[in-house]
């Protein structure tokens, strides 16, 4: 092969090879960027509607209304159902003992699911398009405004979807489905470009 190149071009220095591009060349993070959220403590709280106010002091804010999230500092509470809330926290201190103390006289279930789930962040001007490749919801800002959250599907995986801003979404997914969801979101965001 080398002798053929030398005959046609004279030497290897005369050969021009096509320029190689990285697989993500040309994809602007502004279009859609995908990342893993920082480590978080995740607690699921099952509590009767009539008892919700008893943890406001321990949590630091009131639990959110239906299909909404409430945020203060490094803590967030996401409404998952009439008697279920997902609490996220990036704080080092464990929130569970303070919540258990506030709930000691109230029937409830507080479970640490930190190792069950992981969080993904998809953001950019085409984040909605990337999500809608596998999510059946209308994610227009009129139908799914900032602060809204819900359980839904992304292709065949159950996720929790939370809109942080007009161009930013937090996706909670079970760890076993995380590679599947990541690959599909990554492919969708590249196609959206």
From TrEMBL:
E.C. code: 1.5.3.1
Annotated InterPro entries: SoxG, TrmE/GcvT-like
GO MF annotations in UniProt: sarcosine oxidase activity
Pfam families assigned to the protein according to its UniProt record, in alphabetical order: SoxG (PF04268)
Keyword set includes Oxidoreductase: yes
Entry keyword set: Oxidoreductase
Residues annotated as signal peptide: none
Oxidoreductase in keyword set: yes
Top-rank lineage group of the source organism: Bacteria
Broad EC category: oxidoreductase
Protein name as catalogued: Sarcosine oxidase gamma subunit
Native source organism of the sequence: Granulibacter bethesdensis (strain ATCC BAA-1260 / CGDNIH1)
Organism lineage string: Bacteria, Pseudomonadati, Pseudomonadota, Alphaproteobacteria, Acetobacterales
């Amino acid at each position: 092969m080398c002798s053929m190149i030398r005959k046609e071009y004279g030497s290897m220095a005369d050969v021009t090879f096509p320029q190689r591009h990285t697989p993500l060349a040309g994809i602007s993070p502004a279009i859609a960027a995908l990342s893993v959220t920082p480590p978080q403590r995740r607690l699921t709280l099952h509590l009767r509607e009539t008892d919700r106010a008893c943890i406001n002091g321990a949590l630091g804010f009131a639990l959110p209304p239906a299909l909404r999230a409430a945020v203060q500092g490094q803590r967030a509470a996401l409404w998952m159902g009439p008697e279920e809330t997902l609490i996220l926290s990036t704080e080092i201190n464990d929130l569970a003992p303070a919540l258990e103390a506030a709930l000691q006289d109230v029937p409830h279930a507080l479970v640490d699911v930190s190792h069950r789930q992981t969080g993904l962040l998809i953001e950019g001007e085409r984040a909605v398009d990337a999500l809608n490749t596998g999510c059946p919801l209308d994610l227009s800002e009129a139908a799914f405004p900032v602060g809204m959250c819900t359980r839904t599907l992304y292709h065949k995986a159950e996720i929790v979807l939370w809109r942080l801003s007009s161009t930013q979404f937090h996706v909670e997914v079970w760890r076993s489905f995380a590679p599947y969801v990541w690959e599909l979101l990554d492919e969708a965001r590249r196609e959206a470009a």
